[in-house]
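Expect chain and fold; thus:
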Amino acid sequence: MASSSMVKMGSCLKADDMQELVKSKPGAEPERYIRPKQERIGCSALNAPASLQIPVIDMGRIVSRCHSMRQHEMVRLSKACQEWGFFQVLNHGTGHWQLLERIKKVVMEFFKLPLEEKEKYAMMLGIIQGYGHGFIFSDDQKLDWCDMMALATMPKSIHKQNLWPDRPLLFRPDLVLGLSAHYDGSALTVLLQDDKSVGLRILNKNLWISVEPIPGTLVINIGDTLENIPVECREDAVRSM
């Protein structure tokens, strides 16, 4: 059962809507969003060459009837978990790739709605569910350059049906960060990337590596919870958007 600390971990203060800010002040980033130089991507660590990419694991091989194929892919999966903490998965069993495309379309349509429509689902004080800007605890805090829609499904005790939208029916990026560099406290994080943009970067061996989207794949992040299970595991993996 979720503790109150798990549920009430979100926004305490309100921030401007990013899309409205860009419309009203194109090309002007408020000081509150501009990161100190040491926090910017490429300053805190080196940028990796574009040729360096995270492992791609084929789940079809892992469930194959061929023993040698299964073993080979399991070794690759184990190595990806230990050395990277991130990997992309093919043949993951979520259905046809068109399902993933529909998910992306619905998400994009929601963020295109008028501000007054999105604010019907605004985050409540201290709870990181709904539409808004999470993890704001101080007026002096540097903010992430993003809007977010956070929804929980499980456990049912934290599911808030009133925050699920009825619609839709079916700058200068070097100074700001969409999401700050962070660790995921979960066991596993599953990410569905936009095929048209490279927003996800991971830190591995002091190199920031851009994760190139591969259509039809999902990105898996080994979180702190799974890492702390007493088995041999990888060093902490940090990600940023």
Observations:
- The two ends are 30 Å apart (CA to CA).
